[in-house]
Every structure is written in structure tokens, then in C-alpha cells.
Design brief:
Strand order of the largest sheet of chain A: 7-11-12-19-18-17-14-13
Shape of chain A: elongated
EC number (chains A, B): 6.1.1.22
CATH architecture of the largest domain in chain A: 2-Layer Sandwich
Low-confidence stretches of chain A: none
Catalytic activity (chains A, B): tRNA(Asn) + L-asparagine + ATP = L-asparaginyl-tRNA(Asn) + AMP + diphosphate + H(+)
Bound molecules: magnesium ion
Protein name (chains A, B): Asparagine--tRNA ligase
Largest interface: A-B, 95 and 94 residues
Radius of gyration of chain A: 26 Å
Oligomer: homodimer
Mean pLDDT of chain A: 96
Subunit structure (chains A, B): Homodimer.
Largest sheet of chain A: 8 strands, mixed
Number of strands of chain A: 19
CATH class of the largest domain in chain A: Alpha Beta
Strand content of chain A: 25-35%
Pfam family, one (chains A, B): tRNA-synt_2
Distance between the termini of chain A: 37 Å
Structural class of chain A: alpha+beta
């Protein structure tokens, strides 16, 4: 018998096929049973009519428990009442693995309970939908940067020094050396850009930060493009083009997932309009002051302030040129003003916060050395990084996009912990 | 002036354009200077004719040092003598960053010296070519698994337990917990397959192994597909289709890189022919014995033995059904024989060794529990993993492909350390 996946049903109308799947739900009367089937590709209904099958098949259908696995054989038919549009008229059922007392029932469960059962929770339709959106964002990222002529470069995870001056690093013993888990591959990506021109990384990063908010993960994935011969203005154009591409790809390819998540597609469509609005840090501070926020020039924005700024616009917004004092050592100062740097954060709409941070990089050897010293960093640790300014330095810019924050936003999910298959949180390293 | 990249030259013949790049080499006479330019996208020649440019431009051209960065403006022309086929007739040169005493000269350097300067060594044409092949293998991997209906799933890097019973793990303190860096995401991928059907991971893995061979890295990238409702036979078909797809993609899209690496394309073409040959472990042992290797049934193959087996064939070869005793706890025993498991390694041709290891997974709760105990593993650590056999267990199979081993093979590189941008080796965590 032909084995197909549920997602392939539209190509097999009227054919008898076999599908391997799990029972996600079931209802039955004396004459008919409706099996809600899932196989990871999609969900659809299996209809078992008592008068059309052997008695043992109908009895088995009625006895199936939640998450039991089965081979189901039957005929694919159109089903105009369901969103998916197809169903299977079941002729035979073979049980593969029973499932007794499945812990996640259709009733409400607490988050800690669900997190303890994350390996099973992923089977739920909402989690499945978020993982489909995650997959699409990843797929579209590779497609976008490949089209734009970038090469994928993987910076090391284990490093001897840190990209930013912070103590929030995981330590490990690397044979006789001390090593840390990378919280950004940027410095390495700068070296790669000098060799390969336009590059992007896409890998896990780690922050041993004791914060417990709905926007923070300890282990998260970042996309970090770096571009030689590009200034900050050109980088901003790539950034907005990339984010709009992600939104459009999700709209094009995740229709069922967006339905399940009840995500407003009209809202998402607005995020595909370019260019994105821009506001300077200076203007943003003024705007906040006018609206009774307590902030002084020189301070960083908190979450409520970012949300207030974002709410002024229908698209993601760039905040440009932050004070030098609150940004990392490697950012290039504004040519006309020494107190701000050539940088921008992109703030997502609807209160989802910062999804991109980027800047033009300091490309002058002396200036970079001075900055390293001012930040109390050891020049020796940055020997190879300084080399990039010694041997044919060029203007270059880059940025980092947080994968899970972007997924949280696109899927309209409340908490970032649902945007990654197995979240690592302050008090969680299980499962 | 229109800014283009070298790779775009064919679309701009006869046009005046500006290119940002580095001087990789140079030769000049009294009347003409030839600048070898690179910008990360490709290499080509800039021709500066003394009688056609301002005197200052010609003087600057003659003074340019290796790896100095420049904006070059001129007219794109065909150049039938070069492999790339195009060159630029230079009108103006603007120097961006000087480069004095660039450490890597066209002469021979020792490997340790080059590794110490990896951030610069990446600019060399051979390293550039390997990185292009790496990019293509990554790109083709996403394309293949997306087409085949797999979802990308990222298993966690920080974990509380290990996939295989070994002490070769990096440890870190995860707040109040002990954590280890993942050396395989497989167990998590099995959970994901039960939720999403067909999944693949692609991320860094870590082995704190004190081996120093030309096939080992401490930090390396793995692709780990896992498929619900698939047996080992179906998995083998996916594996060979995937590897042939990688080879074909490199042949299609890395022509210049293969030229630079002097890689035999006719040889690579043979690796696109399917199916790949198969030999059982039993047969392989017999073959080795007949050829005077000292090996007994039950022992694992070493590198010379794998190479001997591979040399019997013109394609990668599968070695099937290894002894249970030398394979991990999660592999499913052969249905007819309890002493071997349903597994296979794929051995690359030309002595490049094992590039894939895969198996059908034990899907029976009791059998898995017994195996865990036999391997001296703590059942409690595998609680969630056992759940997968408790709630709708299904036949499932998966495999892992080592990215850098595959790149080493496809690029015909001697040592795996050149297959990754910033290698982590036994005595190296710099740069
Ligand atoms: Mg910020
Ligand atoms: Mg082996």
C-alpha cells in the first residue's frame, strides 16, 4: 500500500493509502468514529463508519487513546467542512504503540508542568505551529542571504575572549586553557568579512544572565551578518529588506500555522512595507519626555519605553545613533558628533522589543585601541582583531538578529520560551 | 559611480564601475601594472596602463602592497586569458587602508604559523575556495531537507545528560546545575520526530577527545536527521540521496573553487551515481582477514581498515549491521540476530573515512530500559527519553553527518582543520 504523509493528501484524492500517525483526539457514536490524526506534517480527520468496516476495526477505533500511534489505511476524500480540506475514510487500522494516561490532556495545564513535559508538549497543535514558523524563518534566512551573495561562516562557540565586556559568560575547561561559550560571533565575522566580503553566521549563543523575563533565553540562536565595504546606511537597507522577507515568507508558507495561532495576517502584511521608519536616539528621548517617561539623555531604553516608541508606528522602527557610553567598544563614532555612534536597534511592533542590534564598526587602528583601553579590555586578547585594522582595513558594518525574539513576534506568542524546541531558562535545563 | 562586486563583472562589460577590494598580488613594468584584486566574491585582474591614467594613479598602483584595501574605478572588459574571463581597466585608485609587512607572503609558511594567523589565512585563495565549498554544502543541506519535507529543529547545546556513555564532555556550571556541551542532539531529535515527523538538526557539537588526527576536531558541526515511521532501509535511501545531492551541488556551483583546489571533477561525478554499494560488517571482516589485516569479529574498524574497504568501490560505501557490543545503547537489534544492530556507517572514498553514522532506534520500552541498564546509565536521566516509547512509540531511524569531514572529502583537503573557519584543536583555541 502507498505510504503518504497527511500533507500530501491533496495529491491522492480517491486513492487508497496508508498513513502513520498519532491520535490527537477522538469522538465516536455507535455508528461512526472520528479520529483526529497527526503525523507531524499536518492534522486531519479519519472517518470510521461502522457499517463499512470489519467489526474489529470499529471496536479498535473506539478504543484508541490519546497519542496512540497507528497505521491507518483508507481512501483520501475532500472534506469541505475542515480547514485542511481533506480527510481519510478509514478501512483498516493497525495499532503500533499504545499510549496510556498521556499526561497532557485537552484541559488546561500549568506552564511549569508543560515545560517539564516539553518533549511531549511539542506535539500540541499550537507548539507544532510555532515550530513550523521557526522552520520557515530559518529556511527564509538561508534563502535571503544566499540570494544576496553572502557566504555562511560559522564562528567558534568556544573562545578565549568575549565580544563585549561582561561577566555573563559560561566557563569551561578546554584542556589546559580557560574557555567561554560565545555570546556573539561578531569579532570573528569581521575577520571573515575581510576574507569573504559578505558573510552571515547562524548559530547558538549563550548568556549566563540572571534575568527572568518573557524576552530572555539563556541559550538562543542569532543570525549575524557582516559586510565589508558597507556603511551603516547600506546595512540598514539590508536589515529591513531581510526582516520584510521573513514576514512575507511566513505569510506565504505558514498559513495553517498562523490560523492555529490566530495570528492577524493583515497586521503582518503591514510589516512587509518598506522602508521602515527611523527615529534618532535624541528624538526618541524627547518623545519619551513629552509623554511623561522619566528618562535622561544618555540612559538606555527599558522595555516599556521601547514599546511606547514602537507603538507610534505600524512597522518595525529603527532607533539610530545611541550614546557611545552605553554601546560596545567596537562601534564607530558618528562623523559629526563624538557622543553618539553609528548604530541602530530595530524594535518590533506590538511590544515584542528589540530584534536587531547593529552598527558600523570602528575601522581605525588607533581609535579601536583607545576604545579597548577605555573599556578596560586587554589589548593582547584582541591582537588578531586589531590585525584587521592593520592589513587593509575597510569600512564595514554588521548586525545581529535574535531568532527566538523574531519568532515570538511573528507567531504572536506571549513568552519567548515557546519559540525554541527545548528552552534553557534561569531554572531550567530539563528536558 | 556604480559599486559592484567582482562576481558581478560579467553583467557590466563596457561599463565604468567602482569595486572595493584588496590587493592580493601585483606585478608591474615601467608602462603597465597588473593588480590581482580580491573582494571576497572572486578574484580578477586590474590593468593600469601608464599612458591612460594620471601619473599619480600609476605611481599609486606601483606602490600598492599586499592586502592593501582600495576603491578601484574602471571599465569592465572581457579577458579571455584568465579563467574568470573578465578584468577591469583601471582609471582611478583610492587607497582605503594600507598594509605593511603582511605576515602571509606567497612563500611557504609552516602550519602552526598559518593557524596562528587563521584570521588572515582565510584570505588566501585555497582557504577561500574551501570556505565556498563549505557554504555550498550548508546551502544544499537546507535545500535538500526542505524539499524532502523535513523541519529544522535545534536541539539544546547545554544538557544535563549525554547521548552516548562517555566521559569526553565539556562541563560548565549552569547556575546551580551541572551542565555539559552536547556531542549529539539525537535524543532530542527523536522527541522532535514524534512531534513533527521528519526533522533535521544542524549545529555545533563538542568532543573533549584527546586525539590529534587529521580527521578530528574538538568543535565540529553535525547534521542529524530523524524520521518517524521510517525503518533503517528507508533511512539509507535518504542518506545516499542526500550525499549525492551535496556532491552534485558542489559540482554545479563551485567550479572556480574546485579549479583552485585542483580537485578532480570526474572523480566527484562518480559519487553522484546511486545506489551506493553496501557491505555487511560480517563481510567486511572477512574481506579484511583475506587481505591480511589483523581483526576479529567484534572489533571496530580503524582508519586503515576503513580505507581498505572504501578502496574496493568507486562510490561511498555503507557498512551495515555492526556488533551490538560496540554500538550505543539506543540502536535497535537486527530482527533475525541479537548480536548485531540495524545500523550503518557511510565511508567516504579516497581514505576520508566515516562521514555518516546512523541506525534504526530501539522503540520498545522494556528493551530500551534493559539496554540503558546494561550500559550502566541512570534510568532517571532518561526519563523523558523513555516517555517516547510509552506514549505512541513508532519505528524511527536517523543519522548524523559530520560537516567538516564531508567538506574535507569534497574539497580534497589533507587535514580537517582547514574545513572550518576557526578550528578548535587539542592545543588550539586561538584565534
Ligand atoms: Mg537595546
Ligand atoms: Mg566507526
Amino acid at each position: 500500500m502507498k505510504k503518504i504523509r497527511i500533507i500530501e493528501a491533496p495529491k491522492h484524492i480517491g486513492e487508497t493509502v496508508t498513513i502513520g500517525g498519532w491520535i490527537s483526539n477522538k469522538r465516536s457514536s455507535g455508528k461512526i468514529a472520528f479520529l483526529q490524526l497527526r503525523d507531524g506534517s499536518a492534522y486531519f480527520q479519519g472517518v470510521v463508519v461502522k457499517s463499512e468496516v470489519e467489526e474489529s476495526v470499529f471496536d479498535l477505533a473506539k478504543s484508541l487513546t490519546q497519542e496512540s500511534s497507528v497505521w491507518v489505511t483508507g481512501i483520501i476524500q475532500e472534506d469541505t467542512r475542515s480547514k485542511f480540506g481533506y480527510e481519510i475514510h478509514v478501512k483498516e487500522i493497525e495499532i503500533i504503540g499504545e499510549s496510556k494516561d498521556y499526561p497532557i490532556t485537552p484541559k488546561e495545564h500549568g506552564t511549569e508542568f508543560l515545560m517539564d513535559h516539553r518533549h511531549l508538549w511539542l506535539r500540541s497543535s499550537k507548539q507544532h505551529a510555532i515550530m513550523q514558523i521557526r522552520n520557515e524563518v530559518i529556511r527564509a534566512t538561508y534563502e535571503f542571504f544566499n540570494k544576496e551573495g553572502f557566504l555562511k561562516v560559522d564562528p567558534p562557540i568556544l573562545t578565549g575572549n568575549a565580544a563585549e565586556d561582561t561577566t555573563e559568560l559560561f566557563h569551561t575547561q578546554y584542556f589546559e586553557y580557560d574557555a567561554f561559550l560565545s555570546q556573539s560571533g561578531q569579532l570573528y565575522m569581521e575577520a571573515a568579512a575581510m576574507a569573504l566580503g559578505k558573510v552571515f553566521s547562524f548559530g547558538p549563543t549563550f548568556r549566563a544572565e540572571k534575568s527572568k523575563t518573557r524576552r530572555h533565553l539563556i541559550e538562543f540562536w542569532m543570525i549575524e551578518p557582516e559586510m565589508a565595504f558597507m556603511n551603516q546606511e547600506e546595512s540598514l537597507e539590508i536589515q529591513e529588506k531581510y526582516v520584510a522577507y521573513l514576514v512575507q515568507s511566513v505569510l506565504n508558507n505558514c498559513d495553517m500555522a498562523l490560523e492555529i495561532l490566530e495570528r492577524d495576517k493583515e497586521l503582518l502584511k503591514k510589516y512587509t512595507t518598506l522602508p521602515y521608519p527611523r527615529i534618532s536616539y535624541d528624538e526618541a528621548v524627547e518623545l519619551l519626555k513629552e509623554n511623561d517617561f522619566e528618562i535622561e539623555w544618555g540612559e538606555d531604553f527599558g522595555s516599556p519605553q521601547e514599546t511606547f516608541i514602537a507603538n507610534q508606528y505600524d512597522q518595525p522602527v529603527f532607533i539610530l545613533n545611541y550614546p557611545k557610553a552605553i554601546k560596545p567598544f567596537y562601534m564607530k563614532p558618528h562623523p559629526d558628533r563624538d557622543d553618539v555612534v553609528l548604530c541602530a536597534d530595530m524594535i518590533a511592533p506590538e511590544g515584542y522589543g528589540e530584534i536587531i542590534g547593529g552598527s558600523q564598526r570602528e575601522d581605525d587602528y588607533e581609535a579601536l585601541q583607545t576604545q579597548l583601553e577605555k573599556h578596560g579590555l586587554d589589548i593582547k586578547d584582541y591582537d588578531w582583531y586589531l590585525d584587521l585594522r592593520k592589513y587593509g582595513s575597510v569600512p564595514h558594518s554588521g548586525f545581529g538578529l535574535g531568532l527566538e525574539r523574531t519568532i515570538t513576534w511573528l507567531s504572536g506568542t506571549e513568552h519567548i520560551r515557546e519559540a525554541i524546541p527545548f528552552p534553557r531558562l534561569l531554572n531550567r535545563i530539563y528536558p
